[in-house]
C-alpha cells in the first residue's frame, strides 16, 4: 500500500520496472511490487513472470529488454546470488536506468557505487523516495512538513 502521505499520479506513465532480487528477500519484493503497481507502474518480477517450464535466461532477457527501469534490491543475499549478478550486469550492458535499493548495509558493487541508491531500512521512506524519483507520487499536504519528516 502506498503510504498515506503520498498518492499516485496518473496510472501508467509508461514506467516498466524489472525488480532484481534474491529469493530470500521475497517478502519485501511482494510488498514493493504491490506498491509500485498501485502507484501506476508496470512491474516484472520473477515469481510472476516465470512459469513452470520457462527458460530462465530467455524470460529474463526478454524482461530486461522490455523494462525502462531496473530496480536492484541489494542485500547480503543479493550479493551472493548468481542470477542477481547476471541481471544487474545485463542491465548495465543494456544501458538501463538502474536504481539500487539497499535493504541492508551490504556495499554495492564498485561499478554501481557512483549511482545514487535508496535506503530501504525504513520501508516507508524508501518507498516514498523511489516513487518520488519515478514521478509516481504527489505530496498530499504540507510539503515542508513531509520532507522534514522524511529527511535521511
Describe this structure in words.
With 152 residues, this protein is α/β, with parallel strands linked by helices. The chain has one domain: Rossmann fold, CATH 3.40.50.10140. It contains seven helices and seven strands. It has helices at 26-38, 46-49, 56-66, 76-80, 82-93, 123-134, 143-149, and strands at residues 6-8, 16-20, 42-44, 69-74, 97-102, 118-119, 137-139. The relative contact order is 0.20. Residues 141-152 have low confidence and may be disordered.
Q: How are the secondary structure elements laid out?
A:
Layout: E1 6-8, E2 16-20, H1 26-38, E3 42-44, H2 46-49, H3 56-66, E4 69-74, H4 76-80, H5 82-93, E5 97-102, E6 118-119, H6 123-134, E7 137-139, H7 143-149
Parallel strand pairs: 2-3, 2-4, 4-5, 5-6
Antiparallel strand pairs: 1-7
